Amino acid sequence: MGFFDPKEVNTWLKARVPSGATMESGFSDMAMLLALEASGAYYPIRYVGIRPSASYLFSPKAFSVNGEYATYYLHSLAPGLSVDLAYDEGKLPRFFISPGIAYQWAWFEGYEATGLGLTLAMGAELSFGAARSKGVSVALVFRSANLDVSTKPSSYSDRNPVINHLDFSSVLLCVGFQLGL
Fold it and tell me: How do 48-65 and 93-108 pair as beta strands?
């Protein structure tokens, strides 16, 4: 879970709130980003590994204006690849930094975008079991992905104001569980 500020999406959402309306619940900006990721890692040498991953990023927005409830969703699928640089001295905790790249497909209310994004994860892992095959990790993940829109909705009302970028630049606090094979 993390936070982000997709400026053009938030401008579009604010335009959906009628002038002089009273917000009864929520606020119009998207700010919360949820992430689900599956990944595997291969360490050809002790301190350096390769990690392919697949992420699903999701931001829901719901608010009520003058008795009418509105919901919107911003989505992204992002397969990626990163290099794990890990430090441990054979003890239980291990610290890592993991720079990477991801190709993202994003969509929101008829808008679609694709492009490359960068990631940087930093955190710690506590492993146990045979060959340290099980464990839990905590990481702070920075994402940079301001994607150019390639498809826009056909209706003029859905394109006013127009969105040119779907921005998934964010900071996420992630907790992971490791199951070794």
Answer: unpaired
Q: How far apart are the first and last CA of the chain?
A: 27
Amino acid at 118: L
Amino acid at site 4? F
State pTM to two decimals: 0.83
Q: Encoding tokens for residue 21?
A: 């309306």
Distances (CA, A) of 139 to 92, 94, 119, 131, 152: 16, 12, 12, 22, 35
- Selection from 81, 75, 99 nearest residue 168 by Cα: 75
Which residue has 């890592």 as its token pair? 96
Per-10-residue mean pLDDT, the chain, length 181: 89 79 69 90 89 93 79 93 86 86 94 95 81 78 93 76 90 83 57
The structure tokens 């050809």 sit at: 44
Q: Specify the DSSP class assigned to residue 34.
A: E
Q: Check residue 22 and give its pLDDT.
A: 67
Distances (CA, A) of 171 to 5, 54, 141: 10, 17, 6
| Helix/strand/coil percentages in the chain, nearest 5 | 10, 65, 25
Angle at 115 between CA 111 and CA 117, to 5 degrees: 120
Best CA proximity match to 121, nearest among 88, 92, 96: 96
- In sequence order, what are the residues at sequence separation of 6 or more whose Cβ sits closer than 8 angstroms to the Cβ of residue 68? none
